[in-house]
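From the shared-data thread, chain only:
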Amino acid sequence: MNPLTGQDRTSPGTGLRIVRLANFVAPASGGLRTALRELGAGYLAAGHRPVLIVPGERLTDHTTEQGRVITLPGPLLPGTGGYRVLTDRRRVAALLESLAPDRLEVCDRTTLRWTGVWARRARVPAVMVSHETADGVLRTWGLPEGLARRAADALNTRTAHTYARVVCTTEFAAREFVRIGARNVVRAPLGVDLAGRHPALRDPGVRARHARVGETLLVMCSRLSVEKRPGTALDALEALLRHGRRAVLVVAGDGPLRARLELRARERALPVTFLGHVADRAALGALQASADVCLAPGPAETFGLAALEAMACGTPVVASASSALTEVIGAAGLTAADDGGSFADAVRSLLARPEAERRRAARARAECFGWAVSVNAFLAAHDAAPRAFGTPVPLPG
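Structure, as tokens:
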């Protein structure tokens, strides 16, 4: 079926049709793809009719566990490791017109920001989800702090004026909007699959595959791109080895920096295993649960789903102190300055705690972030409450 007919293939009902748009979603994407899937499934379970539109290699239209998913052809972005974008505005606008959404949710603050204008003209309440801080990303790409801040403020001012609401997953993410005086910012945390990620996934066989007896097993689950700063994990491993700790690093993830990181590991004889994208969620969970420490070096993270998944598996986290993970991990891990030595120091401090204690703390903290809480918070941002909580109320703007 051609999706431009707009025929809704989800079950009919009284819920709202929540159309979601996202760019920069690749087959090997991690956190964003997980969030889109879990939120869509939650919207569907709450009695609404979610439709997700993402770029792909070709036109597709499927009914899935997260509702209807439509891919429109989008070109590959060079040097991004598989990201595609929706560049045909006329085609996207035509699809939106045919779908006649009750609510619009946009997960791209750059190339899809024009949809806020479309939504206003169509009188469709729209929210923008801030999955990253603009100034943080700009700084990781090399812009000086002052210039990054000014550029981010200009971008965020336009975003706040264009959309009815801006959804931020942490206080950290909200600060750059508070800084410009935006009054339409709401908080909605992301979540973690507490059943699918659990300490019981710990597997001695998986651990033995990657680390010898007496070695510290470090894991990093991350896209290997500039803004994620994956090189910091290798720096930390090198610092640990230099100070006499036996340690190995397993990297689950892919991206444009992979070849460079692999070359560096070979040249310096670092014990690093690059798994690439791990599509098997059970296998990834077993790896996370079998590790001693998870490293999350991305300085622009506004939530950190991979780190939260590791915590749900009972594995503590060392994260960038520049990111939002300070408020996410709580006492279930430590944060460090953005250099390998600081990360290594934090790893040693974590490992000095009794193992049972640090693993209990990690799981307990993760249990504060179930997906049900997240789904309800996002629906509240849409004024699209679950059926059990009454009839949706129109969102202003």
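The chain has two domains: 3-191+371-388, 199-366.
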